[in-house]
Amino acid sequence: MKMHHLHTNYFSCSYSQSYKRICCRKCDVLNRGLSGYNTKWALTVLPKIITRPTDQGIIAAVVVFFGANDSALKDVNPAQHIPLPEYAENLKHIIQYLKSIGICEEKVIMVTPPPLDVSAWEKTCIAKGNKLDRCNSVTKEYTQVCVRVATECGTDVLDLWTLMQSENQNFSTYLLDGLHLSEKGSIFLETHLWPLLEKRTGNLPMIFPHWSDIDHLNSQASLLR
Q1: What's the CA gap between 204 and 50, in Å, rounded?
Q2: pLDDT score at 31
Q3: Residue 178 and residue 192: Cα distance in Å, rounded?
Q4: How far apart are CA 156 and CA 105, in angstroms?
Q5: What is the number of other CB atoms lying within 10 angstroms of the CB of residue 49?
Q6: Which of 27, 29, 34, 110 could form a disulfide with 150 if both were Cys (CB 3.0 to 4.6 A apart)?
Q7: How far apart are CA 117 and CA 172, in angstroms?
Q8: In which band, very low, low, confident or very high, does the pLDDT at 25 lie, cut at 50, 70 and 90?
Q9: pLDDT 10s digits, 131-149
Q10: How far apart are alpha carbons 9 and 42 in whole angstroms?
Q11: How high is the pLDDT of residue 11?
Q12: What is the value of pTM for the model shown?
């Protein structure tokens, strides 16, 4: 079995490593981090990243995590910016492509972009000689579109933008530089994403028996049954 994570977060992918440990000998976790990519670019390379499986049941889940780059401000960062209507269509096309190769919507989990710490990200931009190119209120609009598309297409969705700001918590600690997830942010994502993944992987059989179930007098029969 396989679990695909298709996302843009290059800086902190510890949540994928945690899932690899949790799902060890049940399924392989494949992390497809595309740093800086928006949905337009991701959609173009998607057929090279996830191909039609030889066995339709081999993929347990696909996590799609885009929007932080799409929501870049057009006037400041036209390279990464994707207009809202196009962002919505791109997400739909990603889901449609997955369905076309036998991955049904029940196996797809959409994740919204996290909130933006404007102050911290502005400092990061200035340090690189750039202007502030994102705004949290705009990120909210992309979050709402992601949630709507997931609802319309019948996939699960994790609203990271809302969860990280609930109960007036200080979400800045979840972000490394105002935009990318910190270690704490990755743990937050891992904690909230896992229940959705567990529904898809919890009943998977273990690949090869536990060592305590191996008959040491006839190990070959135990291992190859």
Answers
A1: 21
A2: 82
A3: 20
A4: 8
A5: 12
A6: 110
A7: 6
A8: low
A9: 999 999 999 999 999 999 9
A10: 13
A11: 43
A12: 0.87
